[in-house]
Amino acid sequence: MYIRYLYKLCDLHLECENYVEAAFTLKLHAKLLRWSEEPLSQLLKNDKYPNCETHRDLKECLYYDILDYFDKGKLWEPGLALCKELAIQYENEVFDYIQLSALLKRMAIFYDNIMKQVRPEPEYFRVAYYGRGF
């Protein structure tokens, strides 16, 4: 049920073009997965990724979607952290140097974007309620 609501929330964020929020929402699902070849339980599967059979497959697909959303939302710094985690997997675990090469090129683009593109300052508000009642 938790996974289903994560995807509903992600879809709502995408409809409103809140790409960064959608990325962080998908990241909550990715945190539940491990970098292993363990088959996915029925609770962790989602219709959006029907070809993913193992934890590693689904986590990798989620990470690439998250990276796309961070890129659309122009928040590349958290995306770089995910890229570094993926790079470790490609370099030390699965030895997929073609994917590693593509990932490092994407990281270079992210670094260029951080240095060259003008972005608005993100604004956050804290709301607190004090007292005995409303």
Give a short overview.
The protein is an all-alpha fold and 134 residues long. The protein has helices spanning 2-15, 19-31, 55-72, 76-93, 97-116. The chain has one domain (1-116): Alpha Horseshoe (Serine Threonine Protein Phosphatase 5, Tetratricopeptide repeat).
Number of strands: 0
The succession of helices and strands, N to C, reads: HHHHH
What's the architecture, going by CATH? Alpha Horseshoe
| CATH T-level fold name | Serine Threonine Protein Phosphatase 5, Tetratricopeptide repeat
Mean pLDDT reading:
92
Instruction: Report on the biggest sheet.
Output: none
Overall tally of structural domains? 1
Gap from first CA to last CA? 33 Å
Please state the CA-atom Rg, rounded to the nearest Å.
17 Å
Beta-strand share of residues: under 5%
GO cellular component, one term: plasma membrane
Keywords: Guanine-nucleotide releasing factor
Organism: Stegodyphus mimosarum
GO molecular function: guanyl-nucleotide exchange factor activity; small GTPase binding
Q: Would you write up a description of this structure?
A:
With 134 residues, the chain is mainly alpha-helical. Helix content is 62%, strand content 0%. It has helices at 2-15, 19-31, 55-72, 76-93, 97-116. Helix 1 packs antiparallel against helix 2 (19-31), helix 3 (55-72) packs antiparallel against helix 4 and helix 4 (76-93) packs antiparallel against helix 5 (97-116). The radius of gyration is 17 Å and the shape is globular.
How do the helices and strands line up, and which of them pair or pack?
Blueprint: H1 2-15, H2 19-31, H3 55-72, H4 76-93, H5 97-116
Helix pairs in contact: 1-2, 2-3, 3-4, 4-5
